[in-house]
């Protein structure tokens, strides 16, 4: 047991069960309730970054955006050809061309020769429409003979002319706050004349791996290579956060306290390891001295020892040390909190439908995350269908059926069961295992941003 400074002790609440070490995790909080407790008292922050467009991809707008100017801002030719007065071409046909005088054939971007009756001025795609013209005849419909052109097809008024504001009208409303910027948005913003945008700051996360057995490389007997901090930091970055991956902190109360306190300037603190009920599992008790543990023990597998707490206004996620348990819980708790704080939607990860190759055991009342590899059966004649890369609406592999094979039924220390898997099958609390042959959804959680 840790000896705690009594001046720091705060109301422990239900979650910091003083008998936890002897009782273990008999009463586990349901996953949804645990998330509710974590998100209950926090709100999305309102801090704003003012960024150039080049830095703004994937960021969330904090301001409404309207177009300061129209695009195009001038009437422009939509085709290479000749600017004309449309009525001069009426009646033109293959055998009865209309003859017009060439007033200018230099194809300037801003032609300065006006188009008079029965005249034509050469334009290129994007040229400003010259004064007097109201249509463009495509070059394919014309034969130039010296200072004249023969027009073989009539054009109507405005034909092949892009009007002012065809793309975006001046003052048009384009985006609302909360919109996550995509590359096409950056292009549109630039075209209407914005060069900077106000976006929400990304929430910051301190990721603190704990455990005196952890080393960064070359483990000796009893030593383990630190992986959780690296993985969880990068997950946090994918979910819209900015992670600071801290050095490993040893199982020493003073060192743990100092490390956690240092990161209270962050929006979220994540620790890994020391979450359980062993004599060196100190983190939940330390959180309880600095703030309060809201939940300790959740009805999920792997990783039921996870704890959730709050210190001042900073949520703290205490991930279990076993790497698979750390990842499963990061997806369950860190992902939604970062999305929420960063004003991002928290969409379900993409899924594939598959048939289970074998039974997956699970305990009723516990949500179980069974890592699976998917194997597809493809049409006999081709492994990879090149046509599918040409017509990308079709499947690249001619998939006939997909089978989900559990990589490992248990073993939350087995990191390869996640890293060499394609996703996981979630066994709901209402089921006691899933049967071989069942149709399941494989959640490709790592592909969700
Ligand atoms: N008596 C009980 N013991 C355990 C229970 C239980 O209910 N009763 N639950 C087990 C489960 S489930 C898990 S998950 C672990 C979680 O415990 P901790 O959070 O205290 O994890 P540690 O003991 O610190 O570490 C477990 C394991 O993972 C390795 N580890 C830790 N941190 C890292 C890291 N950053 N990178 C890579 N590997 C790490 C550590 O060396 C251990 O091997 O508790 C069970 N015990
Ligand atoms: O629930 Mo634990 O993470 O399976 O060993």
TrEMBL record:
One Pfam family per UniProt: MoCF_biosynth
UniProt KW Transferase keyword: yes
Gene Ontology cellular component list: cytoplasm
Composition-biased stretches (Low complexity): 1-15
Gene3D superfamilies for the chain: MoaB/Mog-like domain, MoeA, C-terminal, domain IV, Molybdopterin biosynthesis moea protein, domain 2, Molybdopterin biosynthesis moea protein, domain 3
Pathway where this protein functions: Cofactor biosynthesis; molybdopterin biosynthesis
Major enzyme class: transferase
Sequence ranges assigned to domain MoaB/Mog in this UniProt record: 206-340
Source superkingdom: Archaea
Keyword annotations from UniProtKB, A to Z: Molybdenum cofactor biosynthesis, Transferase
Annotated stretches, region: Disordered: 1-29
Entry EC no(s): 2.10.1.1
GO BP: Mo-molybdopterin cofactor biosynthetic process
An annotated Gene Ontology molecular function: molybdopterin molybdotransferase activity
PANTHER family, alphabetized: MOLYBDOPTERIN BIOSYNTHESIS PROTEIN (PTHR10192), MOLYBDOPTERIN BIOSYNTHESIS PROTEIN MJ0666-RELATED (PTHR10192:SF19)
Name of this chain's protein: Molybdopterin molybdenumtransferase
UniProt organism field: Haloquadratum walsbyi (strain DSM 16790 / HBSQ001)
């Amino acid at each position: 047991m840790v000896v705690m400074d009594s001046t720091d002790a705060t109301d422990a609440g239900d979650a910091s069960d003083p008998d936890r070490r002897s009782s273990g995790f008999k009463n586990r909080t349901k996953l949804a309730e645990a998330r509710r407790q974590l998100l209950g008292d926090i709100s999305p922050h309102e801090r704003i970054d003012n960024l150039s467009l080049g830095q703004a991809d994937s960021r969330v707008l904090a301001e409404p955006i309207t177009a300061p100017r129209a695009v195009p801002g001038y009437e422009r030719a939509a085709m290479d050809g000749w600017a004309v007065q449309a009525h001069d071409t009426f009646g033109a046909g293959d055998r009865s061309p209309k003859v017009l005088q060439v007033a200018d054939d230099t194809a300037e971007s801003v032609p300065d020769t006006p188009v008079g009756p029965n005249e034509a001025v050469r334009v290129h795609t994007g040229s400003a429409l010259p004064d007097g013209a109201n249509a463009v005849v495509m070059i394919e419909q014309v034969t130039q003979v010296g200072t004249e052109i023969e027009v073989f097809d009539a054009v109507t008024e405005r034909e092949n002319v892009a009007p002012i504001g065809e793309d975006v009208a001046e003052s048009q409303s384009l985006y609302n706050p909360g919109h996550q910027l995509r590359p096409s948005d950056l292009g549109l913003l630039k075209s209407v004349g914005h060069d900077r945008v106000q976006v929400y700051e990304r929430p910051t996360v301190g990721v603190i791996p704990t455990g005196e057995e952890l080393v960064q490389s070359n483990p000796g007997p009893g030593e383990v290579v630190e992986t959780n901090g690296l993985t969880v930091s990068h997950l946090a970055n994918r979910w819209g956060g900015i992670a600071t991956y801290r050095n490993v902190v040893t199982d020493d109360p003073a060192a743990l306290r100092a490390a956690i306190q240092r990161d209270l300037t962050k929006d979220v603190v994540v620790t890994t390891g020391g979450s359980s009920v062993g004599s060196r599992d100190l983190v939940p008790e330390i959180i309880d001295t600095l703030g309060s543990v809201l939940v300790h023990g959740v009805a999920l597998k792997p990783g039921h020892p996870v704890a959730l707490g709050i210190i001042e206004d900073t949520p703290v996620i205490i991930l279990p040390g076993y790497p698979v348990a750390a990842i499963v819980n990061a997806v369950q708790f860190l992902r939604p909190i970062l999305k929420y704080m960063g004003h991002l939607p928290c969409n379900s990860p993409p899924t594939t439908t598959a048939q289970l190759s074998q039974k997956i055991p699970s305990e009723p009342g516990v949500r179980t995350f069974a890592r699976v590899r998917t194997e597809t059966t493809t049409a006999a004649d081709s492994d990879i269908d090149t046509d599918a890369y040409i017509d990308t609406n079709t499947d690249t592999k001619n998939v006939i059926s997909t089978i989900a094979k559990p990589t490992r039924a248990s073993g939350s220390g087995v990191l390869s069961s996640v890293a060499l898997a394609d996703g996981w099958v979630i066994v709901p609390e209402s089921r006691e295992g899933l049967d071989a042959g069942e149709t399941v959804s494989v959640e490709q959680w790592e592909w969700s941003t």
